[in-house]
Amino acid sequence: MDIFITILQILDSTLRLATPLLLACLAGLFSERAGIFDIGLEGKMLAAAFMSAAIAFVTGSAWIGLAAGIGASLVFSLIHGLASITFRGNQLISGVALNMLALGLTVLIAQGWFSQAGRTPTLIGDARFTSLTLPFAETLSVIPILGPIYKELISGHSILVYIAFLMVPVTWWVLYRTRFGLRLRAVGENPAAVDTAGISVIWLRYAAVMICGVLCGIAGTYLSTSIQAGFTDNMTANRGYIALAALIFAKWRPWYALGACLLFGFFFAIDNRFQNISLYAWLAIALLILIAALLFFAARKSRLDMFVLGTLGTISAAIAILIWTTNGLAGSVVIPGQLMQSLPYVLTVVILAGFVGKATPPKAGGEPYIKER
Amino acid sequence: MSLMKKMLGAAATLALSTGAMLAEPAIIFDLGGKFDKSFNEAAFGGATRWAEETGNTFREIELQSEAQREQALRRFAEGGSNPIVMTGFAFADALTEVADDYPDTSFVLIDMVVDKPNVRSVVFNEHEGSYLVGMMAAKASESGTVGFIGGMDIPLIRKFACGYVQGVKAANPDAKVIQNMTGTTPAAWNDPVKGSELTKAQISQGADVVYAAAGGTGVGVLQTAADENILSIGVDSNQNHLHPGKVLTSMVKRVDNAVYAAFTEGPGLEKGFQVMGLNNDGVGYAVDDNNATLVTADMTAAVEEAKAKIVSGEITVHDYMSDNSCPVN
């Protein structure tokens, strides 16, 4: 039963950690499906995190904060749209510039406004999105297995978490079941064809970029007014870039994006829970051999993969032998914290290189559309 | 002749004003920022106290990036500031480079040792202060499990952790301590979201008192502890006021006293190695209106007794940095 509770708690933490990634990932999905690459997810989240916390503090309402956060993110989106759609600039450069702008501007404004080292004051009461207890969470908790799952895992999150997970089917429906979605996808693959059909490429791309802004705004707001109670300097801590990695991993598809973000969230949750995990030597060896075997399996796919994964596999096999010879089979091994911390990133490399196969971005991605004359 | 007089007069005025400039001390705040509610804020408090009491002014800068360390040091030294105080271990490399170039300037480095003739290195016995708050944590805990969340995984933070664990075990030998470090890069000082998640992970493992020695990340730790209705322990500055009734105590490092002393002694301050410990009130635990109800008489008695024994040498708290290992965990 203890193990069951532990697993539940880790999954619970996974949901919390995956939420900002998922929102940012879906944001990127809309934008990139329409052919606008967006490195600036991080910057938009950061701007939204600051603005929502600041306005929520001033007004005392988390919902007004959310609106302000989305507003700030939309302003950044518009700048990105203006630079890359209207003026046909380089989308990557515009995105990077926006990230830098957000990093500096948030702290500068926060310092001028609140004079607390680039922070906002701590939010209290209604200025925060507190966790919701779903109906019957207490009464149902007596039911074995399902009760605790409902109470611990599904209930007790902030409303923004539910919005984030609801966005996955919504995104799928919009992209694959509506006329707008069809056109949006088309504009990322072949904008000339869309133009020929008499539909405005510019307008569609702006719409995609604005949707991206709204979703990033919710993601940023979640960070500063839900899990935290205020904005701190650079609080997104590269989550925007991880969301981009998840997007590629998910091959620009909404349900895959959910899976990718949950996987990343799960890795981070494991890292937080078991920083200094101590295993029996035989277990450690078994795991390492499993990793090595997987790597070699993956290695058969292509030459470059074989090189990267083969090296990783050899290293893990070597570590396995080293553990065996030094500790014997009965002793326990303490896996160092650094290894656990690097695990999400190592696994990302492995998965991206080995298991995703060929990730094909939208064909017209990154290319500004120029109408033929 | 009159022109000559005027020029001489101007030169004299200039010399005088430069002389006044020379006496002006300077302080450089580390990346955490002047109002980090922690280490740097304590340093700023000491400098402000000196300025208010003497009516003098001081120069200051908040660093924004690693590259500015040496630049800021040289700017102040060339501008005639003396002494120059730096808050934070990360200045050691920059100061080692710069100190020899300005032999007449006195430098004060807090939290790290640089062995140069014009440098005063102030270090704190954080392990002693952490020992005391560890005892309080063990006594306040009902579950017998307490937590520690460090910032960046460096020996200095391990020193906090090691002293804390020793204190916990001294008060309750059966107690369990869960230890986490936020990360291995300087970003670990500024990730309150991860601080929150680590706190939740520790709570789910049974911890009901959590000690945060993690700079800005600690803001998230204290916040989550208050949200989840458990106790937390602040660090460096007195952080009891952040969540009244939820912060058990704070392990205070009197960085303000170190800065105040340096500014008061002026350019001719004594160089070398200075240790601030329990014996000279360099470290301690904070009790004020915000946590008075949490600290029981039994706790105070035990902690005061331990403090007296540490000062007299009857109890020795092991210093992690002396041999890079901790006897208990």
Describe the structure.
Chain B: It is found in: Cell membrane. Chain B: Keywords: Cell membrane, Lipoprotein, Membrane, Signal. The complex is a heterodimer of chains A (373) and B (329). Chain A is mainly alpha-helical and 373 residues long. Chain A is 72% helix and 2% strand. Chain B has 329 residues and is an alpha/beta fold. Chain B has two domains: 2-125 and 256-276, 3-Layer(aba) Sandwich (Rossmann fold); 127-252 and 282-323, 3-Layer(aba) Sandwich (Rossmann fold). Chain B is built from eleven helices and twelve strands. Chain B has helices at 2-22, 39-54, 68-78, 92-98, 126-140, 155-171, 192-204, 217-227, 255-265, 297-312, 320-323; strands at residues 26-29, 59-62, 84-87, 107-110, 119-124, 145-152, 176-183, 209-213, 231-236, 247-253, 272-276, 283-285. A six-stranded parallel beta sheet of chain B has the order 2-1-3-4-5-11, sandwiched between helices. In chain B, helix 8 (217-227) links the parallel strand 8 and strand 9. In chain B, helix 2 (39-54) packs parallel to helix 9 (255-265), helix 3 (68-78) crosses helix 4 and helix 5 packs antiparallel against helix 10 (297-312). At the A-B interface, helix 1, helix 12 and helix 15 of A face strand 7, helix 7 and helix 8 of B.
What's the topology here?
The complex is a heterodimer of chains A (373) and B (329).
Chain A lengths: L1 H32 L7 H19 L2 H25 L4 H24 L22 H4 L5 H9 L4 H19 L1 H11 L1 H6 L4 H27 L11 H11 L4 H20 L4 E3 H19 L3 H25 L4 E3 L2 H18 L19
Antiparallel strand pairs in A: 1-2
Chain B lengths: L1 H21 L3 E4 L9 H16 L4 E4 L5 H11 L5 E4 L4 H7 L8 E4 L8 E6 L1 H15 L4 E8 L2 H17 L4 E8 L8 H13 L4 E5 L3 H11 L3 E6 L10 E7 L1 H11 L6 E5 L6 E3 L11 H16 L7 H4 L6
Parallel strand pairs in B: 1-2, 1-3, 3-4, 4-5, 5-11, 6-7, 6-8, 8-9, 9-10
Antiparallel strand pairs in B: 10-12
Helix pairs in contact in B: 2-9, 3-4, 5-6, 5-10, 7-8
